[in-house]
Amino acid sequence: MKQHPFRRTPGSRARLASLLAASALLLSGCLYSFTGGGLPPGIRTMAVVPFENATTEPVLSTDVQLRLQDQIPRKLGVRLADQRVAHAVLRGRITGFEETTPSFRANPGPGERVDVTGKQVRITFEAEIFDVREDRSIWKGSGISALGTYQPNSEQAQAGRTRAIDEMVQKILEGAQSQW
Fold first, then answer.
1. What's the distance, CA 52 to chain centroid?
2. Would you say 48 and 13 are in contact if contact means Cβ atoms under 8 Å apart?
3. What is the Cα 37 distance to its own chain's centre?
4. Separation between Cα atoms, residue 120 and residue 19, nearest integer Å
5. Which residues share a beta bridge with 68?
6. For residue 126, with 0-12 CB atoms within 10 Å meaning exposed, 13-18 middle and 19 or more buried, which class applies?
């Protein structure tokens, strides 16, 4: 006896219901997205003001601001705006900048030479994302350190500085997104 292709068999209704439920879950997962990172829903624009710079590195504040302006819209789903009209303001202060040599190797022998195998740039800072409309702080962090390592034999110090700024920006983004 030939079975009709649309004929119901025992358990087919349950399989069909399971298939439909799974399809609905998959489709809703594809359509679901996070808009605004972890920011309150009304925050659609943000101003990134230059960080105060308490270091002897004159362009550090500018480098940080440019990197933040590049990453904030993409990672938090907001548009950049002037401080006078923005829903939120990101502001901060760079409190320290130092370059250290945490990794070296002593070469025993005449002259007792030391080989530097790694250097590190450390930026310390505080930052705040302030909701202008609600007149309240959304996120605030202080005493935060960002590190950037580099190999002095093959890289310039700027590589460590860039990595430290990237980590700094990442920590600010994580702070903003931790608010959900």
1. 20
2. no
3. 10
4. 54
5. none
6. middle
Measured CA to CA, the distance from residue 96 to residue 108 in angstroms comes to 35
* Number of neighbouring beta carbons within 10 Å of residue 125: 26
Encode pLDDT of 123-157 as tens digits. Answer: 999 999 999 999 999 999 999 999 999 988 889 99
pTM (2 d.p.): 0.72
Query: What is the Cα–Cα distance from 15 to 81, expressed in whole angstroms?
Result: 52
For residue 49, the number of C-alpha atoms closer than 13 Å in the C-beta half-sphere is: 17
Tell the burial category of 93 from Cβ atoms under 10 Å away from its Cβ (0-12, 13-18, 19+): middle
Residue 150 · residue 159 · CB < 8 Å = yes
CA distance 27 to 24: 5
The percent of residues above 70 in pLDDT, for the chain, comes to 69
